[in-house]
Amino acid sequence: MTLVQTQLRPADADSVNRPAVEVMDAAGPHVCDDMSVEVALAVMAAARTVRLVICDQDGQCTGLVTRTELAAVRDGSDYTDRVRLRDVLGDHGSFASPVTTMAEAEHAMRTRRLGVLPVVDEQGSALGILALSR
Description:
The protein is of the alpha+beta class. It is built from five helices and five strands.
């Protein structure tokens, strides 16, 4: 599964008012927050992706985690095989709704220094992601 970078700087003024649901990319693999860091890294490698959508026991999106973040945790001095994804989520609790405009999403991502933003429905299920182009 390939995640395509979404260009959030539109060429025309009408594009900034497009809702997230029209421009989001596929959410990618969903994994449970009780998964270990090592298993999550193996899932990423198998899925050929650089990020995972993290869900709680009820299937609600709790955030995203990247390969870089997980590798840093694994290489840390206090790492053990008991570290779970819920332990490393940090400040990944920002989400967009399907009706969030591109302009609102870009502002939120730049303000919070996020490279990606999950798009979730009213029940908290991940529908897709928005990603800033670098």
